[in-house]
DNA sequence: CCATAGAGCTAGTCA
DNA sequence: TGACTAGGTCTATGG
């Protein structure tokens, strides 16, 4: 174990800014902890008074101001942002990320810690148990929907968006299926309704999900559509 | 500037685990950097092979495994999770967060850095320029919708969800308004349609937004509803 | 606790 | 680039 990557000791802010920028440019992730103000201006705006926070600057150009309590950041700037790290006339460390006319700036009044490290590339990792997995499961096992059901198209494009599963039942009725991996909601019914009212031929509309809210089920049935309960791969609901 | 909060130097993992747990319990945020594996099991599941990552443990019980490049975490556990920090039989540091039958575990093969600090309370901070601000703006200035428009109800409840603005025009037509702070989409139209088909009396449906996508505008007009362009407080679109 | 809807949604995909 | 949708959505709010 070593601590050579901690660059917060006994150096001027200007020098620290240079090292952080170099670290960022060379592919390292930088984490900065200290008392700072945060200013975001863009689609919305948010200003945070001086307070102790941690800020992460990623080599992708993403910048994250961590929340004190939540999972979601207090502020952020996405991948691809233009990062600058420098000092201002008061020798304060300024980290800024610009992207598409939006700006996020952290101004540090002091610095408690500053570390950098080469983060492993997790770009190809992915979660399992997605809705598309359920689509594939239905395509391979169409009887999950009902006996005699045949899938005609997956992600069928319409002017009202893409239909999850388009098929035909054993009485030759065209069927539109909206799949949800979790409990279906009013939104799910609206989505189905939107496809049903598109120019795509259909006589039956189905929401396929492990569960459905009461109000969604009422709306669904008022609209003349059906709910089909399906098993979805999950450990908890 | 000091580094006394870096507890990664020259101590055993067991001792470090104790200090981290104490820091967490006493209200500090802990950041741990090192080679680790990550296992999440719950609504979905994801396993990350050994790699260098940073993990944040917040006193609220939130745990975050940072992504290498994105803003969103690679894995996480929400506020209110039960945190354990300990070593296993191989003396590896294990951080685990349990919540509602879901689990997230980080197993550290080595540790590059471990810091903790008292994060300022940003619980009361909030972004400005929200949709509710626009609602209030319309309530105070109903002519934004059109001359003679009068607001009857805000967030009117229906069995199909809540109507943003419910009002009446100068010809006594009941009007349902769905407000969006950004470009309206197919979803916005579906939402309006859902309210229009509810039991609430209405003869006009309006989407009020700064812009609308082409397909959403077509769907809107096919359904016999209207788009009204409004100014929204923003610096960029 | 469930249900609903916004979010600087983010991120991915496909035209 | 724009549009559309899923997401372990998260998070806030109201019943």
Can you describe what's shown?
Chain A has 237 residues and is an alpha+beta fold. In chain A, 18% of the residues lie in helices and 38% in strands. The first copy, chain A, contains four helices and 13 strands. In chain A, strands 1, 2, 3, 4, 5, 6, 7 and 8 form an eight-stranded antiparallel sheet that branches. In chain A, a hairpin with a 2-residue loop joins strand 6 and strand 7. In chain A, helix 3 packs parallel to helix 4. Chain A is elongated. The mean pLDDT of chain A is 94. Chains A and B meet through strand 1, strand 2, strand 8, helix 3 and helix 4 of A and strand 1, strand 2, strand 8, helix 3 and helix 4 of B. Chain B binds a DNA duplex (15 and 15 nucleotides) through helix 3 and helix 4.
Question: Can you give keywords for this protein?
Answer:
13 strands; homodimer; alpha+beta; 38% strand; DNA-binding; eight-stranded antiparallel β-sheet; 237 residues
Class by helix and strand content of chain A?
Answer: alpha+beta
Mean pLDDT of chain A: 94
With helices defined by DSSP (H or I, 4 residues minimum), what is the helix count of chain A? 4
Strand content of chain A: 35-45%
- Assembly of the depicted chains: homodimer
Helix content of chain A: 10-25%
Number of DSSP strands of chain A? 13
| H-E string of chain A | HEEEEEEEEHEEEHEHE
Low-confidence stretches of chain A: none
Q: Which value, in Å, is the CA radius of gyration of chain A?
A: 26 Å
Cα end-to-end separation of chain A: 41 Å
Q: Could you tell me which chain pair has the largest interface and how many residues each side has?
A: A-B, 80 and 80 residues
């Amino acid at each position: 174990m070593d601590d050579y990557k901690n660059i917060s000791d006994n150096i001027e802010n200007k020098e620290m800014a240079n090292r952080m920028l170099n670290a960022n440019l060379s592919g390292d992730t930088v984490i900065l902890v200290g008392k700072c103000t945060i200013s975001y201006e863009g689609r919305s705006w948010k200003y945070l008074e001086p307070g102790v926070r941690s800020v992460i600057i990623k080599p992708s150009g993403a910048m994250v101001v961590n929340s004190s309590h939540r999972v979601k950041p207090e502020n952020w700037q996405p991948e691809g942002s233009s990062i600058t790290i420098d000092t201002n006339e008061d020798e304060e460390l300024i980290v800024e990320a610009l992207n598409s006319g939006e700006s996020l700036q952290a101004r540090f009044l002091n610095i408690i810690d500053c570390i950098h490290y080469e983060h492993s590339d997790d770009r190809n990792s992915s979660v399992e148990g997605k809705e598309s997995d359920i689509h594939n499961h239905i395509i391979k096992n169409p009887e999950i929907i009902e006996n005699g059901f045949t899938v005609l198209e997956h992600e069928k494009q319409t002017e009202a968006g893409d239909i999850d599963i388009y098929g035909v039942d054993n009485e030759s009725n065209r069927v539109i299926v909206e799949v949800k991996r979790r409990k279906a909601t009013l939104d799910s019914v609206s989505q189905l309704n939107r496809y049903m009212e598109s120019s795509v031929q259909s006589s039956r509309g189905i929401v396929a999900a492990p569960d459905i809210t009461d109000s969604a089920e009422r709306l669904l049935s008022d609209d003349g559509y059906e709910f089909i309960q399906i098993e979805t791969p999950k450990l908890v609901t």
